[in-house]
Amino acid sequence: MTVVFALLFYAASIVFVAGLGYRIYRFAKAPAPLKIPTTPAPVTEAGVVLRLFREVVFFESLFKATKWTWIFSWAFHMGLFLVLARHLRYFTDPVWTPVELIQFIGKYASIAMVVGLAGLWGRRFLVDRVRYISAPSDHLMLILLLLIGLSGMTMTFVAHTDIVLVKAFFRGLMTFHLNPLPADPFLIIHLLLVAILMIVFPFSKLLHAPGIFFSPTRNQVDNPREKRHVAAWARKLEET
Amino acid sequence: MAKADFKVPELQEFIEVPLLEEGTMAHSHPFHSKPDFQEPLGYPGELVENWEEKAIEKMGDLLGKYRSFQVFLDSCVKCGACTDKCHYYLSTKDPKNMPVGRQDLLRKVYRRYFTLPGKYFPKLVGAVDLTKDVLDDWYSYFHQCSQCRRCSVFCPYGIDTAEISMAAREIMDSIGVGQKYCNEIIAKVYKIGNNLGLPGPALADTLEGLEEDVYDETGVEVKYPLDQKGADILVVTPSADFFAEPHVDGLIGYGKVFHEAGVSWTLSSKASEAANFGMFIGSYENMRRISLRIREAALELGVKRIVMGECGHAWRVAYSFLNTLAGPFDFLDPNYPVPQHILEFTYNEIQKGTLKLDKSANDDKVLTFHDSCNVARASRMGPKPGGQFEIPRAVIKAVCNNFVDMDADTIQEKSFCCGGGGGLLTDDLMELRVKGAQPRVTALKNAMDDSGVTHMAAVCAICKSQFTKVLPYYGLDMDQIVSVHQLVSEAIILTGQKSDEDEDGEDED
User: Fold this and answer.
1) Which of B493, B464, B492, B462 shows the shortest CA–CA distance to B479?
2) B284–A33 C-beta distance less than 8 A
């Protein structure tokens, strides 16, 4: 079991990092040949940073669009963020102070995360328009995340696992040492699903996470009259 | 009320989100282009033999050229935020008119050919092969998008369906499936210089006629010059301004403003068209070629500034793209932005106090303002974000006593499209155009009932033409749509103008 999971997590990490790296490279490499920010748009770089901040932290556009999706989605993402931050304790020793400080709240953030996911999933059945646009993969992704959340919560609130051993296992992986992983069913499910999530990430709509930073309608400065914005391939047209 | 061979949607009290109904607009598609209109644009005349392969190749090419295309295809999470934002969905209930539904027509093909899950598990991720049926769907539904960008305001990743529909049209053009309306017009611009195919002499005649009209009415010799070398300002305006109603009343207004401001200006027979349909078909090359006419005209005439007339998508191309496509404009006066909008010009003159305005001239109207999509969501006026909302309203308020905005959810960045933008302003799409106007007309009707609004001002030639045509289907009057500079024109008192006692009583409203 230990060896299988060690190999699985090495493989998952490689796919995650390399795959995501490749996709980000693709985003970065494709030029944006025209200024297309959705206006009104900021006229300075600082303004763009602020716009992206509001978008990433508060989901500003989604808030304008639909309050139900916003509340579920925001609860899920913020819950996930705290839960992930809480998990840093398995990879750091000594545990960083901020991570220490959020241990308690991170525990309950998992509830927000799961409630948010359930709400988002519910919309896929209840709202006819959202039902229409949902592919099987959209349902599976939510199921995957829900199961990760629920299996994790089970270990937090119901059937504790030996987290000292879990930490030793992951700290060991980081230095290429094999330490035994507890053969706890909830832990096995939890870790297996997380590995699947990491592997699926670069090939799925989870690319929305890096995508937002590369979205020209959100990340461009509104200054086309002041500055020309010619892409390399477009410059070739000028030379002929 | 105008007659229709389709069911005109009934105006509801509010803009309601309907339950979806599949396939209600599957029959809608514009006339196909002909080889004569395809070839001048650099496209094959008819469907090429190995079109599937060519289309996928073109898609790959665009993925490498446009970050927007790549990012937008990858980033959608199907959250549904956009699903009730498109005027065409709200009025037709067709789920393929939901922004994400429209994007998915192309996205599912992208997934099939360009992503691993789509290659190996197509059913799981909803990926499909590019077949003739899919292509037909593309042709139908990518010509049911007015590229108004309303969806992009609400998308948490800023996905802009306009970019997807532009790419789709570019792919279709590249395999010989073009739309007649857009491509015929672009071919006409290349051949004659403007969308309407008005040759130089006809233009000169028209402008002379305008000078006579204004003289008869005011006793002042306001000039509408054409190809006047050495003028300070080159004015580029949509060709509809030369004769269509209410557009031409706007052009008369521009002339009066320039006259009072004491600047010399000219129109150009070479760049006698502000519209740039290259944008609608998503073609950088054609958009650039059309834009270069403006540069050439500016150089030939030796002007110092460029001012654009009232037009929505033309202002987007001019404001957002002109400098990139046809710049640098270092031969123009650096003290002015290139280009300027006529409203920026008029607004500045009002601020300076050079215009003598009699607001009461418009007292027969209660105005509201329709924010045209491309002005509202794809460009700006003035130095500050949001100037595109404030400046037109400030000008209207400076020339009218009665102004009321429509419902806040239907104006400014949330403005509803007129239903005729994005290369759809053609009679073969009349059903779509009438239906697409429903949300905007609902908001207008509410403003009429609640606040006594009588007229709606717009700053876009397409909006003006579209409303003139579709308002009667809803039992409203075509004259209710007016140009902003028409209002300016009414209110402006020219230096030395004869008193207007003699024209009282023949007011047509």
Assistant:
1) B464
2) yes
Q: Which of residues 157-196 of A touch B (CB under 8 A)?
A: none
Q: Which residues of chain A have a CB within 8 Å of the CB of B78?
A: 130, 133-135, 138, 205
What's the distance, CA B262 to chain centroid? 30
Tokens representing residue B86 in the block? 């498109």
What's phi and psi for B357, nearest 5 deg?
-120, 135
Whole-model pTM?
0.94
Tokens of B217: 């009415």
Domain at B35-185: CATH code: 1.10.1060
Domains of chain A: 42-216 (1.20.950.20)
Give one DSSP letter per residue of B191-220, joined into a string.
HTSSTT---HHHHHHHHHHHHHHHHHHHS-
ipTM of the complex in this document: 0.95
Query: Which of the 8 DSSP states describes residue B159?
Result: -
Domain range annotation of chain B: 35-185, 192-404+453-503
Distance CA A2, CA B153 (A): 49
Single-letter residue type at B320: S
pLDDT, tens digit, for every residue of A127-152?
999 999 999 999 999 999 999 999 99
Question: pLDDT tens, A164-212?
Answer: 999 999 999 999 999 999 999 999 999 999 999 999 999 999 999 999 9
Residue B393 makes CB contacts below 8 A (sequence gap 6+) with B369, B403, B405
